[in-house]
Amino acid sequence: MHREERAVLERYLKERGLKMTAARETVLEAFLGLETHVTVDDILEAARALDPGIGQATVFRTMKLFADAGLAREACRDDGGRQYEHAWRHAHHDHLTCVDCGKVVEFVDPAIEKAQEAVYRRYGFTSSGHRLELFGRCPDCSKKRSR
Amino acid sequence: MHREERAVLERYLKERGLKMTAARETVLEAFLGLETHVTVDDILEAARALDPGIGQATVFRTMKLFADAGLAREACRDDGGRQYEHAWRHAHHDHLTCVDCGKVVEFVDPAIEKAQEAVYRRYGFTSSGHRLELFGRCPDCSKKRSR
DNA sequence: ATGCATGCAAAGACTTTGCAAATTC
DNA sequence: GAATTTGCAAAGTCTTTGCATGCAT
Predict the structure, then answer these.
(1) Contact, B4 vs B88, CB < 8 A?
(2) Which domains are assigned to chain B?
(3) What is the pTM of this model?
């Protein structure tokens, strides 16, 4: 499973003289098996389902490693909680989040991307990424609310 | 100083039977006297400069109150640190942050705002705000880097 | 063999909460 | 006077670090 991500990790490790270990494999499988947008705790729980011996510190350390290897992306919720998203073969996207039920829609909008480039030019900045989160109420929650 | 913000706070407090206290005034002055984008610690330090007796818990509690009163806006950095921004008479804006020196440019781009509305419509969501942060390198840092 | 990685537990950073005393209305 | 607020310290979270042991190379 997840052969490609595993190859990415192995290459990353080899490049810096680090080691492929059982714990790293387990955390990788656990992380990839979950939907994107998970907390360290979610990952720990999933990892322990595969191997109960996994330590919490290992998950923290491993996820930092994955982030650096380009397999995960560190994000943060407004309440300060940290989350990780899948980053490999998971193109850039923005988020549309329902403030009631928490549902997240991922989208990419060319018009927005283009307008952002114009902003960079306007201020003479060199672009290096962005984060856009739209908040609102999803169709279901809107309906419930108007009743 | 800051008469208008003070009036907003007083009205907010009166509406719910809460009290205007010296500590709240102090924290308000401290917060407004700082530039936007500050941590609780920045505010605590500034507040203690005005009144050394201010407790840390009071600042936490008071900033939550201000956020609810519409005077402050809670934000969060990617490293998980919490920040507060001024929210009163400080229209909605997005951020363009220099990844090298940390400088922040606030901007509003009508094309982006418009494109966002289209995204809401596309997914049937009701809008309730957004957060956009562009990362890049400011002109100064770009120059330094290319040398 | 060497040195990186692990799990545990302790330590840290940040935030919240319980409480008695002080303050506001 | 009744009720909210405060500052302190204790308790909670979440995350990182130190260390002896275990493993990958």
Answers:
(1) yes
(2) 3-86 (1.10.10.10), 94-146 (3.30.1490.190)
(3) 0.80
